[in-house]
Amino acid sequence: MKNARALSLRGLSKSYLAGQNAVDSIDLEIQPGEFVSFLGPSGSGKTTTLMMIAGFSKPSSGEIAIGGRKIDSVEPYDRNIGMVFQNYALFPHMSVADNVGFPLRMRQVPKAQAAKRIADALAMVGLADFSGRKPAELSGGQQQRVALARALVFEPDVVLLDEPLGALDKALREQMQIELKRIHRELGVTMVYVTHDQGEAMAMSDRIAVFNRGRIEQIGSPAEVYARPQTRFVASFIGDSNLIEGVIGRGGSVDLPGFGSIAVGRGDLTPGTPVDVLLRPETIRLSKEERSPEDICFTVDEIVNYGDSFLVIGKSAGQELRARVPGLDMPALARGERCVMRWSKERVHIVPR
Amino acid sequence: MSRSTIILAVLVAILLTGPMFIVVPMSFSTAPSLEFPPPGFWLGYYRRFFSDPNWTGPLFNSFAIGFGTMVLAMLFGAPASFALMRHRFRFRSAFRMLVLSPLIVPHIVMALGYYSYFGSLGLVQSMTGVILAHTCLTIPVVVLTLTSALANFDRRVENAAAGLGARPLTTFRLVTFPILRPAFLVAALFAFIHSFDETVIAIFISGRDSATLPRQMFNSFQMEADPAISAASSLLLAAVLVVIGARWAARLVKPQPARAKA
Q1: Is B25 part of any domain?
Q2: From A158, which residue of chain B is nearest by alpha-carbon distance?
Q3: How many structural domains comprise chain B?
Q4: CA B151 to chain CA mean position, Å
C-alpha cells in the first residue's frame, strides 16, 4: 500500500493526577506496514497511549510523529488515522454504505469514485450484500467488519484498533483474527492493535509491546517475548509459566535449590546474582520410569483435561509447578501419585530480577 | 398482586382519570349549561368554539405563544444541556439549580414577580411577555429531556466521526443531532404543550388581546359557564395526549444502540 507510514512515539507521557503517570515516557518506533500489538492488563496505559495517537487525549509530554510529521498539535480530524473502537461506534442512523462512505464524504471524494471504494471496502470484509442495512440489523461480528471497512476505506496512514474483538465469542474471534491478518497482509497498512488477550497478540502481531504500569516492559516478536521475556512480569503475563528462584553460579550456570545446577551459558551475569528461571509448562515432560539418579521427583496435585492436552499441577522440591502434556504423551497418572519430571535444559530462560 | 390491590389500583385510576371521561362527553352534549350526564349529543359547541372570535382568538394566541416559547426554550435549553453534560466549569451545580429552579418555585409566586417586573418594562398584556415568562418556565423541561438523552449518548461515535475527518460542527450536524433527533423533538413538543396549557402566569400577564386558551376558559367559567368550555377542555386534553403519544412513538422509533450480538 502506497501510504504505509512509520509511527514513532518519543518520551510520551500522560498524567491525570500530578505525580502519577498513566503513561510513563513511552519510546516506540513502529515501521511502515508493521502490525504492532499493545498488550497488557487493564490500566496498564495501552488504551491511553492509543487515544493519544488518535488525538482524543492530549499527551502531558513527549511527541508523536507519523511518517516523520509531528502530529502533537494536529486535531484528530486532520490526522488521517483510521480507528476501530471496542464497541464499533458505528453511526446508528446511517446505512452500512453511508457509514463506510463517511470518511470519503469528509474528504470530498467524488460520488462515483466513493461508491466504488465503498463497494471494494465492503467486499474486502465480506459484506458486499449488506450496504443498505442499518447497523442495528447486523450481528456483532458484522458490525465489527463495517467498522473495519470504515477505518480502512480512506487509506489512512495508520490504523488503530482498540480491543476490536473483545465483544465477540471465541470462534468468531479466531475467524476475525485470521481475516484481520489477511487484510493487513493485502493492504500492508501500519496497524496498532490494543488487546489484553495474549493469545490474540501472539497470533497476529509482527511485534508485541508489553505494557505494565504505564511503561513498555518489552517489545519484540511474539516468539521473542514468549521464549525470552526480559522481566518477571512479561514472563508471567505471556503464556503459562513456572518461575523458579535461583542464583547465578560459576561458569555461567544457575543454581536452583532442589533442582541442581544447570549450565545456561550466561557468563555475563555475576555469580551470586539472584534470578528467576522461566520454565514453560510445555517444556516439562512427565514420566513414570526412573532413568538416572538426577531425575527430579514430581508429586501430582491436580490434572485438568483440555482434550488436546493435559495440565498437570504438582509439586517438585517444595515448589508448585505446572506441566502441559500433549494428550498422546500423557502417562497414566492419578492425583497424589509421584513421577519423574524432565526438561530440556536448552529451553530454560533466565529472567533478571 | 392480590385481588384487593388490583381493585385499589383500578379505583385510583378511575379517580385520577375520571374528570377526563366527564369533560369529553359533556363537550358533545346538547345541554345549554354544563350538565352530566348529557341529555343528547351534537357537535354544536365545537362549531361555536371554532366560529366564535372569543375562542378562536385565544386559540390562535395559545398556538403563537406555544410556538414562540418552544423556539426560545430550545435555543436556550439545548446549549445549556450540552454545557451541563459535557463541560466541567465553576458553579456548574449552581447553574443546574438555577436552570431547574422554575420547576420548584410556585407558579403563583413567579406570576406575581413577572406581573410587577414586566409591568415596569411594559410587557404585561403582551404576547412577548407571556412568551418570555413561559420560556423561563419551560427551559427546565427542555433541559431535563435533553440531559437525560445526552447521558445515554455514546460519545465514542463523535470520536469516531472526528477520527474519520469530521470537524466539530460537521460532527454535530451529521452525527450528534441526527442521533438525538427524537429527544430534540420530544423536548420541543413538551416545551410547546407546557406553554399551551399553562394557566397561572397566563391569567396574570396575558391581556385581553393576548389571552391564551386556558385564560379564556377560566374567564368564561367565571362569567357564564359557556358549554363551549368543555369543547375547549377536550381539545386541550387531546393536544396533551397527542404529545404524550408522540413521545411514546418516538421511543418506539428511536434507533437502538448498536450492540454486539455476535
Answers
A1: no
A2: B163
A3: 1
A4: 22
Task: Tell me the three cell numbers of residue A177.
Answer: 483474527
How many beta-carbon pairs below 8 A join chains A and B? 96
Please tell me which of the candidates B156, B157, B164 has its beta carbon nearest to residue A103.
Answer: B164
Instruction: Write out pLDDT tens, residues A240-294.
Output: 888 888 888 877 788 888 787 877 777 677 888 888 888 888 888 888 877 777 7
Q: Is A252 left (phi over 0), alpha (psi -120 to 50) or beta?
A: left
Which residues in B lie closer than 8 A to residue A56 (C-beta atoms)?
A: 159, 162-163
pLDDT band at B258 (very low <50, low <70, confident <90, very high): very low
Range of the domain at B177: 59-214
Collapsing DSSP to helix, strand or coil, A310 comes out as: strand
More confident position, B27 or B4: B4
Q: What percent of chain A has pLDDT over 70?
A: 98
Classify residue B11 as left (phi > 0), alpha (psi -120 to 50) or beta: alpha
Q: Which of residues 207-266 of A touch B (CB under 8 A)?
A: none
Put simply, whether A83 touches B (Cβ < 8 Å) is yes
Residue B99 counted as domain residue: yes
Give the span between the Cα atoms of B111 and B102, in whole angstroms: 11
Average pLDDT, integer, range A92-113: 95
pTM for the whole thing? 0.80
Q: From A54, which residue of chain B is nearest by alpha-carbon distance?
A: B163
Please check whether residue A135 touches B, CB under 8 A. Answer: yes
Instruction: Let me know if residue B112 belongs to a domain.
Output: yes
Q: Any idea what the CATH number is for the domain that residue B149 is in? A: 1.10.3720.10
What domains can you pick out in chain A, each with its CATH number? 7-232 (3.40.50.300), 240-352 (2.40.50.140)
Q: Which residue in A201, A87, A88, A81 sits closest to A148, CA to CA?
A: A88
Model confidence at B1, in pLDDT bands (50, 70, 90)? low
Confidence of residue B206 (pLDDT cuts 50, 70, 90): confident
